[in-house]
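Table S5 (text form). Sequence records supplied for joint modeling of the two-component complex.
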Amino acid sequence: MNAETDKISLMKLADGQKGIIITILGGKSASKRLADLGLTPGVEISVIGRTLFSGPVQVEAGGSRLVLGRGLASKIIVALK
Amino acid sequence: MTDEKKINIVLAGQPNSGKSVVFNFLTGLHQHIGNWPGKTIEKKEGTLFYKGYTIDVLDLPGIYSFTTYSGEEVISREYIIHQKPDFVINIIDSTNLERNLIFTLQLLELECPVIIALNMVDLAKRKGMTIDYNKLQDILNTSVIPTIASRGYGLTGMIDIIIETAGQKRHHEIPRYGKEIENCIEQLSLILNNYELLYPARWIAIKLIEKDNDITRLVNEICPDILEKAKELSENLEEIHGHDSSIVIADERSHMAFQITREITTITSYKKAPVSDRLDSITTHKFAGYIVMIFILGGMFYTVFSFGNWLSGWLDTIFKNLHSWWNSNIGITFFAALVWSAIESIIALVQIALPYILPFYIILYALEDWGYISRIAFLMDNLMHKMGIHGKGCISFIIGLGCNVPGCLSCRILETRRERFITAILVTLVPCSAVSVIVFGLVGKYVGLLWALGLYLFAMILIFIAGRISSRLLSGEPVELIMPMPDYKTPNVKTIVYQTWDALKEFIFIAAPIVIISGVIIQAINLAGWLPAISSFLSPITVNWLGLPAITGILLIFGILRKELILVMLAAYLGTANFSDVLNAQQMITLAIVSMFYIPCVATISVLWKDYGWKKALTICILEILFAIILAGIVKRIIDIVL
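The corresponding C-alpha cell record, covering 724 residues in total, follows.
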C-alpha cells in the first residue's frame, strides 16, 4: 500500500471522483465552519463540478451539496477512494 | 407564572429549511418585522390565535451552529437560554437530513424543549429517501412531525401537539459523546454545578472544550480556576485525536448525525428527478452556465425595465395632473411650494418603488426560491474573489442594478463586516435604474447605443478596479465561500409575496424620511433664489473643468435626491426635451459619467450611514465626488483629442 501518495488536495480530484477527508489544513475557524456543515475527517466527499479557471468546486458529502471556494477546497486533504 | 393560554414558540433551523414558510403559515398577517436591539439583524415576530390560545412565534435567523462565528448565532443561543421559550421548533430540511441533524444535536445540547418538524418530506421522497420519523422520535425522545410547509401539511398537527404538551416537563435525550469527551465534560460539570449559572452546566462544559470565546470570558469572571482545568483537559483530547479540541467535538457531532441518518433512512430508489438534474448540470456548467446566466439576468432586466417604463410613464401623467390640480387649488405660495416638494419626494419614491423595485424584487425572490441565486454565486465566485469578496457579493451587485438602496441592504447576508463594507462601496458604483435612465436617455439616444453600452462596460471595469483597491486597503482576510447548494424546487408564491412585501417596506422606511427632508431643503434653497449663486460658485468645476453648461451645477445638486432628476430638470430648465439642441455628444458623455459616479443618492447614503456609521458614509461620498469630477474631466480631454 502506498498510502502517502494517495493523499491529495480536494482541488485535485477530477469531477465525479470520490475521496475520504483525511485532514483540513489551515485555520481553526475554517475547519469549524466546515465541520458545522458536516465536512470532518473520515467523511466521504465527491466533486460534482467546478467553474472556469479552477474556480470554486461543487461537492457532495453526507447527502448534501456544497460549494467551496478554491482556497478552502485546496486545504481539504483527501485520500482517493 | 405566565398566562395559561399563552405559549411562546421559537422557530430554529438552518437556512433553506423552510423556516420562513412555516412562519408565514403560522402567523399570516399577524407579523412584525424589526431589528434585534443594536444589530442590523432582522427579527421576525408574529402571533397565532388558535383554539383559544395566543401563540407568540419568533423566527430566529437561519444558522448552522451555535458558535460565536456570527451575530445571528450569538443572538439565537442567548435568546433560547435567557427567554426560555415554551418550545423550540426545529425545522429540518429532510432532503439534507444529515447536515440538518448536526444543528439539531446542538439545539438539544441547550437543554430546551425541542419539537422537530421534518420538513419537505415530499421532496425527500422524490429523491428516493424514506425517513422513519418514529425511530427518530425514539432516538431523540422528542416529538417529530413530518411536514410539507409549502402546502401547510402537518403544521396544524404540530400546533396541536404544542398545545397538548404545553406546561408539561419534557426530557429529551441529550447527545452523548465518546468516552474521553464525556469524561472531560463530567469533570468540568462537577465543578460548574457549584455555581449559579445562566446556562446548563453541561453546555458550558462543552463550550469550554470548544474554546468558545464568550463562554470562556463568562467563566473567567466567575471562577478562573475552571479555565485551567478546561485547558488541561482540552490539550489532553488534542493529544489523543491529533487536532483542535473544538474540531474533536464537531467531528463527534457530525458522526452522530451520520449514524442517526443511517439508522432512520432507507434509500428506496436513488434516482434524482431527471429534469431538475439536467437543469442543474446546465446551469452550473463551465460554459453553458454563464450563457444561461446572461439570458436569465438579461431577461430579468428587460422585463423589469419595459414594465417599469410603461408604468412610470402612466404614473407620470397622474402625478402631473395632481400637480396642476395642486397649483390651481392650493395656489403657488412659498409655503405651498414647500409642502408640494415634500409630496413630490413621496411621489418620487413611489415612482421608483412601484414600477422598478417591486417587479425587480418579485423576480429576484422567485429566482432565489427556485434555487437559482446560489448558482449565480457559484459561477461568479472566481471573479468576485479577485475583488476580495466571494460569490454571494454578486447578488448585491445584481440588486444594485435595480436600485442601490436594496443593493446595499442586501450586503448584510455576507459573513464579515469587512466584506459587507467592500461590497456596499462597490454597489454604490453600480449603475442603478435611475442612472440607466440618464445613460440611455442621453447618451444612448443622442450619441449612440454602443456608447451607452460602452459606459456600462466602463462602470464594470471601474468596479473591478475599485474592488481590488479597497480589498487591499481595508485590513483583514478575505472569507472563502462556503455555501450549501439547494436543489431546484417549485417557487412558493406566498413566500415570494411575503419577502417582496418586507423588502419593499424596508426600502420605503429607510428612504422616505431622508428623501423628503432633503427634497424640502433643496426646494427651500431654490425658492430663496440661491440656486444661481450655487451654479456660478460651481462653475469652475462644471464649466471650466468639465466643459458643461453652468446650469449642470444645479442639476447635480438635485441629482443627489434621485439621479434621474438630472435629466428631468435639464429638460425643465432648458424648456426642451431635445437635449441635442443644448449639449454636444462630448458633453453628454461627460455628464453621464459624472451622474453615474459622483455621489450615491441620499437614500443610499442613509443606508450606508445606518449600517456603517456616518464617518464611513461621508468618506465614501467625498471620495466619489472627487473621483467622478477628476475622471469625467480626464475623459472629456481624451474625447477632445480623439474626436
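Note: Helices of chain A lie at 28-36, 70-73.
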